[in-house]
Amino acid sequence: MSDTKRELIIQACLMRAASITTANGYNTDMGLNTFRAISKIDPSRLPACIVYPFSETAERVGGGEYLCTMPLRAEAVALTGITNPSVLAEQMLGDMRQAFMGAPITPLIEEMAYTSGGTNDYTKNDSVSVIANFTIKYFSTISSPYV
User: Fold this and answer.
1) 145 found inside a domain
2) What residues make up the domain containing 46?
3) Residue 146 resides in a domain
4) According to DSSP H, which parts of the chain are helical?
5) Which end of the chain has less neighbouring CB within 10 Å, N or C?
6) What is the per-residue pLDDT for 81?
7) What is the pLDDT of residues 75-86, one digit of tens each?
């Protein structure tokens, strides 16, 4: 069977996260290692971006459709090296916001909004973690979640 519309949207978000590299005009290379919903990253795989899709809600709308709202979190983790962790964190947050909100990710998404974000963890001396939360809205037919 084919992928659901939700799965295709998640895959498109992962591809967008993978585009976050200095070669593509961003400040950081967190897209060099992109993962989906993992809890631990080997330090040798940094910088990295992890995408976490969360439980969605659905509202029945006219025309036999649901308007689905899916929260999505992107987390970036990088070694600080000689860079000030706060400066690096702001670059990482800016890169995620630009990547996810700068241009449409897929025509399957009806609406996408940045809802919150910032530095997640300064406690490690050699790395910094930043999160960016988004809300994605898309339509799904009542009879099938597939495209």
Assistant:
1) no
2) 5-140
3) no
4) 5-18, 85-101
5) N
6) 85
7) 999 998 888 889
Distance, C-alpha 29 to centroid of its chain: 15
3-state helix, strand, coil in the chain (%, to 5): 25, 40, 35
Residues 6 or more apart in contact with residue 123 via CB below 8 angstroms: none
Q: 132's torsion region: left (phi>0), alpha (psi -120 to 50) or beta?
A: beta
Query: What is the phi-psi region of residue 7: left when phi exceeds 0, alpha when psi lies from -120 to 50, beta otherwise?
Result: alpha
Would residue 35 count as lying in a domain? yes
- List the beta bridge partners of residue 146: 4
0.90 exceeded by the pTM?
Answer: yes
What DSSP character marks residue 3?
A: P
Residue 147: inside a domain: no
* Chain segment 123-135, per-residue pLDDT in tens: 667 889 999 999 9
Tell me the two tokens of residue 127: 């790395």
Per the structure, the count of domains in the chain is: 1
- Which is nearest to 79 in space by CA: 21, 17, 20, 29? 29
Contact between 92 and 78 (Cβ < 8 Å)? yes
Rounded CA separation 126/138 (Å): 39
